[in-house]
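Appendix B. Chain record.
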Amino acid sequence: MKKKIIKTLTADFESYSNITENEIEFWFARDLQHLLGYTEWRNFTKAINKAKTACETSGHKIPDHFVEVNKTIDMPKDATKDIVDFMLTRFACYLIAQNGDPKKEQIAFAQNYFAVKTRKFEIIEQRIKDWERLHARQKLTLSEKDLSQLIYDRTGNDRDFGIIRSKGDKALFGFSTSEMKSKLDIKSNRSLADFLPTITIKAKDFATEITIFNVKDKDIKSGQQISWEHIRNNKGVRKLLLERGIKPEELPAEVDVKKLERRVKSEDKKFLKDPEKL
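Structure tokens predicted for this chain:
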């Protein structure tokens, strides 16, 4: 997510925050509906109800975080109408965001924005960067699992996947998997992708998804043909990166994604246990 988008969304979410007399920060559900990109209230109430269940399951009292209120709104011809709304704590907003589609920028932002109490821009930006890298790695795992199964279905050999993936790495980086591990000072028994930056993880995932699509679409059956297909796709992705001034083999290693995953999960668990402390 771009810095400009994070700044804009931060300003939007901050502008709708409110403070009670007891200095408890809250958002109105009708405002949050707009912020999260829900067009219909009835669909948003489904997310609210799921969040209430999650609130109770995590050991918190629903009335402490979801307070139903009535609002009077103006209607045409000087008429008025009473509508239902909710005062939502930061914790309630977080639970609602967790029920949304993280592919939407507003949802992905909200899932991280409400998870940190000190909502300084730099903290939000770093958490979103970590979150995006973690999700990119999880997505690559799924893509590689799909490709591995597809190769096995076509060739009957589960060893071919490792060989094909390594050839793909050679095409993408100009170095073999083991050479890249040595270059980035990664232990031989660890996965290369666990230490790659987000852009490179997504590049590997993109090439893998193209391979999966073409193997199915062209009905490729032999391991050698699948290997050639994967090499071509990784070379194509490499060419695109180089055209944009990105040399994947020269990007430095990043923090172990396993450590990142443990940290994010630990923060989320602490927040679910005691929303006021984090």
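Further analysis of this model is presented in Appendix C.
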